Amino acid sequence: MTSNLYLDYNPTISTLPLADLEVGKHFYWEIFGYSLHGQVFIVSWLVIGLILSASVLATITLNQVPRNNWQNIMEIVVEYVQGIAKNQMGSNFGEWVPFVGTLFLFILISNWLGALVPWKLIHLPEGELAAPTNDINTTISLALATSITYFYAGLKKKGFSYFKKYFQPTPVLLPINILEDFTKPLSLSFRLFGNILADELTVSVLTLLVPILIPLPIMILGLFASSIQALIFATLAAAYIGESVEGHH
């Protein structure tokens, strides 16, 4: 992204460029006239491939008593996500477990790849590979998907009477209730983006300053923080869906 700053020192003659500031570099793909961040798609496909591979390995030979490690791991993950959904949605949690689970796994694995893989060793024509969740476009997409899902959940359960919630507990609060639905995706996306970007920047700076010992505990702390961010996003998504379906806060 390039930003140019100009000073009109004499409007009748010309303009003098004071600065030419470039913020961030990206590897772009031009497809049908659209510029796409290639590095985000590459790592996102890698994350999706890892999730699909783990799912296939876990379900190739299903047994009532798990006999392979992959089935054990995936059953633990599914039970964990079911617990998140049930706590936030109550009895109607079952049909939303796949959505909440997909969000949780995608964010968790993206964050872990960003914290563990030395992406700087892979050179691109422009920019560099990193966790998809350190790109604001990814986090906004995930937040918008969550918003669309909880609107769909509310309309599916209550029909057009779902919109009565905007007039409760009093019609005076209509603007605030509408504004709340706009702030939810903003808070979801910027929280995840800010935390992951800050963690990666911290590790990068410390690696440059003290390349041997100091970055390791920071990376371990980053793994923990990345896991918490995935949990928070999935929990809030489940809570918003539960609020739409059950009508509770």
TrEMBL record:
A cellular component annotation (GO) from this entry: plasma membrane
Main location group: membrane
Listed Pfam families: ATP-synt_A
Residues spanning the membrane: 42-62, 96-116, 136-155, 192-214, 220-241
InterPro entries on file: ATP_syn_F0_a_bact/chloroplast, ATP_synth_F0_asu, ATP_synth_F0_asu_AS, F0_ATP_A_sf
Task of the protein: Key component of the proton channel; it plays a direct role in the translocation of protons across the membrane.
Stated family: Belongs to the ATPase A chain family.
Name of the protein this chain belongs to: ATP synthase subunit a, chloroplastic
Protein source organism: Nannochloropsis gaditana
Gene label: atpI
